[in-house]
């Protein structure tokens, strides 16, 4: 494995995270917050919903990656358990946030018909892609968490963040990247 | 690979269950902190317990030294950041947290303490009352969650070794 891609994976830049967010159809205002071109979003229900919708869009994308890997049997036997667990986590995150959005009268985004994942021919490629999505999700949640106004959603987002970091750490370990 | 059904897992399952009202579910088993001062006090105490356990484990398990050193350096930095937050929020400075803990070289006990520290950060965010404080403490939450994941991997490796 070449050093440069490994280094890029180790320290993903904000524009990379923003690119993933855009590919998942995250609203431009939230992408601005993620890439640092927007300091803060205006307070209010619209912002809460924009953050929720962005998070749901990223969860749809993560589920699609794990679905693809599991369906095509690309995860090695020793890692299938992690993939299944992480897919389950993302389903839970999606459902939780869809419920919060609907409780507030919002209409959460549906998954896209297709996600750009590249060829994904090997377990290594798949795990690298899964890691990129997890890193993007973790960075996105971290970027938007202080914009959340309500206690219930802030608490949910905090626990979701804990899961994203676990996923990321496991895949980094599998790929032989630094974890501490 | 399977992990014990902990408070986080229970919380997550409840939150994900469609039949449980959301507002109720998100608070099941969670500590409801009343103020930023309360959050910081809990974090100081739990961080001190994790540090005590890590030092003991690193003494007993030479292979754990690098991890312990890295985590303790993170604690130092996070402690300084909390002091700055206290100052900005007009809160009293912290006193050195006193910890009494048994079974210091137990990896399971380290995991429980680490998980409690992670939960204190997550459950404390709504009580901080200022976006800049949420930003800083969410950053610490990410680092501490990573430590927890490493401890989980360590436990799994120990289990695989039998």
In short:
The complex is a heterodimer of chains A (180) and B (162). With 180 residues, chain A is mainly α.
Search tags:
heterodimer, A: mainly alpha, Ferritin, 70% helix, 0% strand, B: 162 residues, mainly alpha, elongated
Helix and strand topology:
The complex is a heterodimer of chains A (180) and B (162).
Chain A: H1 3-10, H2 14-23, H3 28-35, H4 45-71, H5 77-103, H6 123-144, H7 151-174
Chain B: H1 7-16, H2 22-25, H3 36-60, H4 65-89, H5 107-128, H6 131-161
Can you give a write-up of this model?
The complex is a heterodimer of chains A (180) and B (162). In chain A, helix 2 packs antiparallel against helix 3. Chain A is globular, with a radius of gyration of 16 Å. Chain A has 180 residues and is mainly α. Chain A has seven helices and no strands. Chain A has one domain: Ferritin (Up-down Bundle). In chain B, 34% of the residues are buried. Chain B is built from six helices and no strands. With 162 residues, chain B is mainly α. Helix content of chain B is 72%, strand content 0%. The N terminus of chain B is likely disordered. The chains are: A mainly alpha (180), B mainly alpha (162). Chains A and B meet through helix 5 and helix 7 of A and helix 1, helix 4, helix 5 and helix 6 of B.
State the separation between the terminal residues of chain A, measured CA to CA.
Answer: 21 Å
End-to-end Cα distance of chain B, whole Å, is: 13 Å
Radius of gyration of chain B (CA) equals 17 Å
Helical fraction of chain B equals over 70%
| Gyration radius over CA of chain A | 16 Å
Poorly predicted parts of chain B: 1-7, 16-27
Beta-strand residue fraction of chain B: under 5%
What's the total count of β strands of chain A? 0
In round numbers, the mean pLDDT of chain B is 86
Helix fraction of chain A?
A: over 70%
Which CATH first-tier class of chain A would you pick?
Answer: Mainly Alpha
Please give the largest β-sheet of chain A: none
Please, how many helices of chain B?
A: 6
**Overall pLDDT confidence of chain A:** 86
Low-confidence stretches of chain A: 1-11
């Amino acid at each position: 494995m070449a050093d440069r891609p490994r280094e890029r994976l180790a320290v993903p830049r904000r524009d990379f995270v923003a690119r993933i967010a855009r590919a998942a159809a995250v609203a431009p205002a939230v992408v601005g917050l993620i890439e640092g071109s927007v300091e803060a979003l205006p307070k209010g229900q619209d912002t809460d919903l924009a953050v929720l919708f962005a998070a749901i869009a990223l969860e749809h994308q993560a589920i699609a990656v794990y679905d693809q890997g599991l369906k095509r049997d690309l995860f090695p036997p020793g890692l299938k358990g992690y993939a299944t667990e992480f897919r389950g986590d993302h389903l839970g995150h999606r459902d939780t946030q869809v419920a919060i959005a609907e409780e507030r009268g919002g209409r959460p985004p549906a998954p896209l018909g297709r996600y750009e994942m590249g060829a994904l021919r090997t377990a290594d490629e798949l795990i690298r892609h899964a890691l990129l999505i997890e890193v993007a999700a973790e960075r996105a949640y971290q970027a938007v968490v202080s914009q959340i106004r309500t206690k219930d959603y802030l608490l949910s987002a905090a626990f979701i963040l804990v899961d994203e970091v676990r996923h990321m750490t496991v895949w980094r370990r599998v790929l032989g990247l630094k974890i501490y | 690979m399977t992990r014990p059904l902990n408070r986080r897992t229970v919380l997550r399952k409840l939150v994900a269950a469609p039949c449980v009202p959301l507002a109720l579910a998100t608070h099941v088993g969670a500590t409801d902190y009343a103020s930023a001062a309360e959050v910081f006090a809990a974090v100081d105490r739990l961080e001190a317990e994790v540090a005590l356990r890590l030092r003991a484990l690193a003494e007993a398990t030479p292979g754990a030294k690098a991890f312990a050193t890295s985590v303790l350096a993170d604690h130092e930095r996070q402690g300084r950041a909390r002091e700055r937050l206290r100052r900005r929020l007009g809160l009293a400075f912290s006193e050195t947290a006193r910890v009494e803990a048994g079974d210091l070289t137990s990896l399971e006990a380290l995991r429980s303490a680490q998980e409690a520290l992670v939960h204190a950060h997550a459950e404390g965010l709504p009580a901080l009352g200022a976006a800049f404080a949420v930003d800083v403490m969410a950053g610490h939450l990410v680092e501490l969650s990573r430590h927890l994941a490493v401890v989980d991997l360590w436990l799994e490796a120990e289990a695989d070794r039998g």
